Amino acid sequence: DRFKVDAVQWVDGFSLVVECVNEGGDDWEPEELCHTYVLRWESGAGTSQPSKIRLDEEYVGASICADATPPGDGPYLHTVRLPAWDLALLAHRKSSDSHVSLVGLGPGEPGVLEVLEDDSVDPDALLAKVPLTEEDDDNFVLGMALDTTSTGVRVLDPCKSERPLPPCPVVFLLTTDGRLLLYSVAQSVPDDQFSRVYPPTLVLPPSPQLPAAPGEALQVLLGGATGSPAGSPAASPAAAGKGEPDLKAAMGAGIPSDDEDDLLDDDDHGDPAGSGGGVAPAAEAAAKE
């Protein structure tokens, strides 16, 4: 076997995730091309010999596509950590299936967590899925981040559809075709465990003391530095009275159409497809255990 280390990521001060990819040939099944290990130290990295636990390849790094990205164009492994639940979320840049894996890092041996085991719930409906591209090609996770400030996202318990869950963390996935996918990360637990699983500090609203965007930057984003598109309100720092950006105008600003875009000469460059347009984010929610 010709395995090489493909990606390394710390998930906490005691646990290191290492992914190895097999370069031995084409006789391997897709789920056998990638082996993922968790190296864990009992009392901090470097103080003792770590234990090595291999994670189930059916759920972590499945269906690795070696040509999904040019060699050296990493990082390939994306991780986010949810300490309150002893949980890590893993996504491999080259994996066309099982895009996001849940790995438990609590006491005992690390391992992959499966979604709800309930006959009344379809587990596939609870996975963080990445759809195919518009051309029906494989799609991949370019980046991943976790937000713990979204208090207004409503998530219903999949086992008790009428019961709303407390505010849950939200994971953001950026895909190779430019989509931004949002999924809620949640646990379905009995009512008497809510206070333990969903402590008040799990999800908190953002601080109101965060500084506003500089007026000059907002003007540039709206085209104020080069002239606003026809029919689009421009940002005016003075409109707020104290040099602050006019956020209401910013929210109502239109996106210039191809006809209004004078940055490119149609005679020299042709009609640039999608010029002035934007990618609409796709928002989805799934509850996980």
Radius of gyration from the alpha-carbon trace, in angstroms: 23 Å
Report the helical percentage: under 10%
Query: How far is the first residue's CA from the last residue's CA?
Result: 35 Å
Percent of residues in beta strands? 15-25%
Count all strands and give the number.
12
Give the spatial strand order of the biggest sheet: 1-2-3-4
Shape: globular
SS class? mainly beta
Number of helices: 4
| Biggest sheet details | 4 strands, antiparallel
Overall pLDDT, averaged? 72
Low-pLDDT regions: 224-245, 250-258, 260-289
Q: Which sequence of SSEs, written as H and E, runs from N to C? A: EEEEEEEEEEEHHHHE
Structure write-up:
Helix content is 8%, strand content 23%. With 289 residues, the chain is mostly beta strands. It has a 4-stranded antiparallel sheet, with no helix packed on it. Strand 7 (101-104) and strand 8 form a beta hairpin. The chain is globular, with a radius of gyration of 23 Å. The two termini are 35 Å apart. The relative contact order is 0.11.
